[in-house]
Design a protein that fits this description.
It is found in: Cell membrane. By secondary structure, this protein is an alpha+beta fold. It folds into 4 domains: about 210 residues, no CATH class; about 190 residues, no CATH class; about 210 residues, no CATH class; about 200 residues, no CATH class. It contains 27 helices and 22 strands. Strands 12, 13, 14, 15, 16, 17, 18, 19, 20, 21 and 22 form an 11-stranded mixed beta sheet that branches. It has a 6-stranded mixed barrel with strand order 2-3-8-5-7-6. Helix 3 runs antiparallel to helix 9, helix 3 runs antiparallel to helix 23 and helix 15 packs across helix 25.
Amino acid sequence: MESWWEKMKVNNKAYIRRLAKSILNANKSRRNILLLAIALTSILFTSLFSVALELGKSMETQTMKTIGTISHGSFKELSDKDINILSKDKEIKEFSIREKVGILDDEKISAELSYMDKNGYEWSLIEKVKGKFPEKENDAFIDLATAKKLGYKGEIGEEIEVPFNIEKPYTGEIIEKKSDKFIISGTFQNPIDSNVGVGQIYLSKAYVDKLSLPENNKDVEVMLKNSFMIRNKLLRIAERNGYKVADSPENLSDKEIRIGVNFAYLLSGDSSFDFKTFLPFLAFLILVMVAGYLIINNIFKISVNEDIKLLGLLKTIGMTRPQIKKLIHLESLAASLPAIIVGDIVGISIGKIILNKIFANNEMLTDVKLSLTVIILIILFSTAFTLLTVFLSVMRPARYAAKVSPIEASRYNETTIKKKYKSENITLGKLARRQVFSNKFRFVSIVLSISLSAVILNSVLTYTGNIDLEKGVSDVIATDYNIASPKYFRYMYSGSEDGINEKFIDEIENHKGYKGGGALYYYGYEHTYPDIKIEDHRIAPILFGIDEFLINKQKITEGDFDKDKWQTGNYVMLGEYGDKKSAFKTGDKIKINVKNKVKEVQVMGKVEYNFSNGLRYFPVIKEDVNDESSPTLGLEYIYMNPNEYKKLTGDKSIMSYGFDVEKSEKENFDKLLKSFENEPGFSYDSRNLQIKSTMEFKNLIEFAGYSLSIVLFLISVLNFINVIATEILRNMVNLSILEAIGMTKKNIKIYLVKKNLIYSFCGLVCSFIIMLLVDQYILIDFMEQTKWTSFRFVIRPLILVNFANIIIGIIFTCKFYEKHSQNSLVGRIKSLE
């Protein structure tokens, strides 16, 4: 037989929604705490996703600069027929054609000649473009560096003569030698971060069409629907159109092509993205979900307990279990929507502040602005995770509410004593302990939420409090100033063409206040294994020429530096980086072979190798340079007397020059070096700049950590206050009865305060245990890897946060009880029955 409720169709969705809103709004203080808790959770998620997505976008953009294009990928060695077939594929949104002509016929200058269409120009990340792309037959669009190497000014309208060889793509086979005159229609520069070490000369379509070029000399760059798993998409496109993808450019058949993937895209499938770099974000994500879950779950558990008699009544008149569950979930949804909107706005603002600080202090990250697409993604991710957190938090209370029968609900009393106490001597302390531990789940959730903010704040201060500024900068700069080309400071030093011009050094050495300096010489990519090797050892040596001034600035880890022996040129110092030890000991004799020119030297000692005395990158050198699958060789860093270095390598290029100045003249040197920065090929670093950068980095970590800790602290305090308020209101009848039989208000306050002190003390113990685990398994290892920190145990923030909880708990408990106990005893008991 159908119930009256079912006949009246009370399963109506609109009615249940109105009922959910009414129940939610019935207790405004509980509703406001819930709104604030969900908003704080949303703020944490939004700020996290803002930072993560924008950093990812910045890393992509920076890597694209080194590659030279934003296209997703490419198909190589195509004919016009191949292009006609592949370009029509449904997965290709746009495409660009590049037709290869050949290379510049000059032994000293390396440059490619080709034609590129409009899309290709738009997708290439070239900078400082002047003039226009080639339109007339004899137009040429050339990078400025190549024009100057050819002996021209690189001005628009200037006539240049370009000798070049028409070659078969990727084989180097010369088909024809030519030389023609062109008019410069435009110039450009490759980004300073670019890996494209080869110059580029782009010719017009009209000129290229007149040449006798090989048929399969075109590459097609493509933009796909998205950048997810680019390699798989390119393979699918090739196979769908009847092509086989080959790995090697040699001897391709008619239906064989090669593909290229832009690995700058983090989700391309070819990215060097390391999952370990994502772990901190994942840990933060889980932490936010746990923090949000603890308070939201607790609020709804308390809500269900408060409304249990109403829910029992609704069941009595026919509301089903699924409808009860739906009612609770609709309550959570009604609270979530406005809270999430506020959380998204505040979270994006906080994320923007953090990102501005990150981009301002890290020159290796491109400052990218929040685009509309990224903002929408952030809002979607944040909303999804916040709603998931709310849903998970409400599941248990909703299931509990649906399970309770109408009779149980009408007799419900959460504080029912389940066992008889053996002792009749019930003190306030014992009563408080029994009350606190009567609900194990709530006890754990409150203690955990108190602990989380304390642990995070303590971890941040442990890290920032142990940053040693002098130790931090000594790995990067050992002198007051260091000058070099911009490419050196951007980790892109490639060889003699990137060396610092000695005219800058001359001016510095003749400037008032100069105390002393020294040069670091390095040949870059111009020599590599096996042209340069150590006889009888499968090791790739990295040779440096280093002036005595700089040697005296290094940390010697083995042996001693002997000035007289050094001057002979028959001794070397070896550099060791971290745990990577040298294959040689002090006193060993080694034979260095540079293009069959052999020099035997003896190891004088060892120094600590780092950015201040070496490269700003770690070369990967294969045993067979033409085979990517061949073993990677170990590196041996060898420091030689500069004169001996020059004789052996034939290279005189100075990679960097470090010098010290009088303290009183530092301001004048800053002005001098800043004036040099306007000239190409010059950049500088200083100890003061590095200390400032390290301080800004420290402040950034503190800012992010404090922001997170404050929000989590607010969540824990909210949770604590909510529990205190709800327990006082729920037990007001019992407290009033205790007052009626002789207990003073003062004693009742003591009883309530003791309950809160138990929570606070347990929170302190719990946070101390969690902190020990975090220190042991996370912070110690992490701080060992960062050269500028050394681990020391910190506990003061733990105590301060828990002390704050105690003070807040005591003040709020006393004030809240006073406010709700002003009515007469009889009135209080009747109103709460």
